[in-house]
Each structure stands twice: as C-alpha cells, then as structure tokens.
Design brief:
The protein is of the alpha/beta class. Helices cover about 30% and strands about 20% of the residues. It is built from twelve helices and 20 strands. Strands 1, 3, 4, 5, 6, 7 and 9 form a seven-stranded mixed β-sheet that branches. α6 links the parallel β14 and β15.
Length: about 450
Amino acid sequence: MIAQKVTSPRRPQGGTPPQNLTTRSNTMFYYYEKDGKILASDRSDLPYTPVTPRAGEPIYYLVEGDPILGRGSFKVNAPGQLLAPHSLEVLDESRLPTLELDEALSAALEAGQLTAVNTGRMGWESIFTAAPNSGKKRVHILAIGDVGSTLLTGLKLLGGDVISTIGICDLSDQITARWEFEMGQINLPWDYNAFPDVEVVKPENLFDCDVFVFVASKGIPPVGSQVKDVRMAQFENNAAIVKTYARMARKANFQGLWCAVSDPVDPLAKTAYLESNKDEDGNWDGKGLRPEQVQGYGLGVMNARAAYFAKKDEKLSSFLTEGRSFGPHGTGLFIANSIENYNEEISQELTHKTVTANLVMREIGFKPYVAPALSSGALSILLTLRGEWHCGSVFLDGIFMGCKNRYTPAGVETELLPHIPDPLFAHIREAADHLKTIL
C-alpha cells in the first residue's frame, strides 16, 4: 500500500529567499496514521498505515534529530522549522530555510495544530498516547526555604484558577508543619475555597503531581562573601541534589512539568533532563523526562529587572515596549533594548545593570530572593499553566535557552521574531556557547 502523497506548490515568482538558506520546493509529503494520530513526513517508506489527511485534525511532522541533544517535540510556527528544528534559528524567521508546504500542512500550521516530533529520540511515540491533565494542576514544591516559601505564597494567593492543591516537602518536618499551618489560615472571608489548599507531602509521593518545582539548594554564599559568580558557586552541590530527584522522577514515570528554580537555573534544568534518562549504570536509555517536560525558571526576574531599570531611565525605556531578554539567569544573559530599533550600546548598558542587580542587593545587606521567587518562580509558573507567554528556558541547540515561550496543545512554542539583528543574534549564540561549556 502506498502512502498518501501530496506535492507542495512551487514558490511564486518575485520572492527571493534570504542568502545562505536552503529552499525546498516541490517536496512530496506522505501521510500516515498511528495510535489515531495523523503523521506527516517527506519519506514514503515509513512502517505506518498510509492515510489521506483529514481537515481540522492536528498533524505530527516527523523530523530527525540527535537522540540526546535534539529537541523532543514542539509546536511549529514556521515551515522552515521543519528543516532546522533543533537550532537557535527557530527564533528568527529570516534565518530559517524555506520550505513550501502542501495544503494540509499549511492548514495545520495556520490553525496552530502542527507539531514537530524528533524520531531520533527513544520512545518518541509516547507523545501520541500522552494524556495530560486538562483541569487544575496539582503542584509540588521541594524545599521551603526563603525562595520556596515566597514562591509558595505567590502560588497560593494567585493560582486558584489553575492550581487544585499545593504539596510541600522539605528535609525539616518543622518547616513544612509551619507553612502548612500558615497557608491554611490564608483565606477570603466566606469564600474558603478561593485559594488552593496546601498540604505536606512525603518524599516518596513527590512526583504524584502535574508540576514539580525544584527549589532545593545547598551552600548559598553568605552576604558579604567575595564570591563573584554566586549562581555558579552553587552548581556542583545543587546538581548532586537534582540527580537524586531526577532519578526519582524517572522511577515514578513522571509525565508532568519539572520546573527548575534553584541556581544556576539553566544548567540544573539540563542536569535534570540528562540524569533522568540514565539507567543504574549511568548509560543513556532515553526512558526519563522528555526535554519539553523540563523548563528553567530564571529569566523571568531578569526580564523584570530590565523593566525596573528601563522605568527609571528614559534612555532605556524602549525596552518596555520593544525589548526582549535571552539566555541564562546570569552570565551569558543579554537584554535587547528593542528588536526593531536595536541599539548595541543601550542594550549592553541594560544588560550590565540587569546581570549585576543581585550584587547590588547583597551590597545593601540582603540576599536577593524575593523578586526571583515571584517573577521567575510563582508568576512565570502561573503564566505557564495558563498557556500564556512567559520568560523561561526551553531545550534548544542542546542547552536550555532562555526566551519568550508558552505551552500549547501542540507543544511548547517559542516566539518567532521576523528578524533578529545580527549583533543580537551573535549574543544569543554566545550565550548558548557559554552554557555548553558548563554542561
């Protein structure tokens, strides 16, 4: 039996593709069915049932990719992302290859129903049978210290529309008892179910949830220490903790969202992904968290800090309406004052102020944890659960890259900009290269 074949239309006259980009016209697409889902590919020899695409149905386009460093699945918002699915170019439409889609794929793309799936990843077919909870989510938080308790408070007060219950876990039973007691006494008069209930969770039940928030940390340099890169000073100790819980997530076959909040956010997100996919002997088997199940929550506060400085200086104010933030929570971060009216000097100044803001708080005499716990933690996680745009780190180019993104029924979607100026794209590339030197 021959798969349904559809030939893409030729490129209309008058359009010239950008330099150095691949143009593919007259590509033949083949359609299959598996587990009740419609698959698409440019290959005619796949071992699935050939079908004719049906209007209005989501389509899963099969792409190739590295089994470890390639993306798992994601929402497609430009045809060229099917030819360059794993690279930083997915952020910039002008840097993508050109691919002419047929009617069925074009319709799915337009409807937001086109998902790319990396067939190089072991167990990639599981995406077709996954059944995520479509109602309010159960959230579990690990470690209720300064950051965890502040994040908990934010989720309790603001998350009633998307959170059913919040479970808390900590090494100290005294701490969890305190916060369960405190949170239980926060209610609106006569509307006692407006806020999600908070309860203590045992370690063995940590992954009986939809969202796991990792806030555990060890060895935070004290205020007044001479450590220049406070975040990276925590990596070794915190990575060891992440490994333990990543293996627990694997054992529990956790299918929810892993939120990395502890520093350094982005390398710890990658640690969780990698370690969950190793067997007892440390060999990769791909049976753990999918890369799209993990997100780093550190960019939210950096974006908010940039806005803080932009409000105080007219020269920097373009960021408030035109700016973007890219990269990790720390070294490598870059703040663009504007996409359409990019200015390197202004962007460098705003980036410096943003990156060093935590040091300013330490000079005042306090640990900078309130804004991160709320802007990167509670507020960004709530935006995620609502399917709204937020700042966070998603798996891209083999690392967790901070950018504007959101979760949709078709998968995680990264913002697609019409054109990222060359100097800014170079900074994004530098950020990725920096993260690759860490892990």
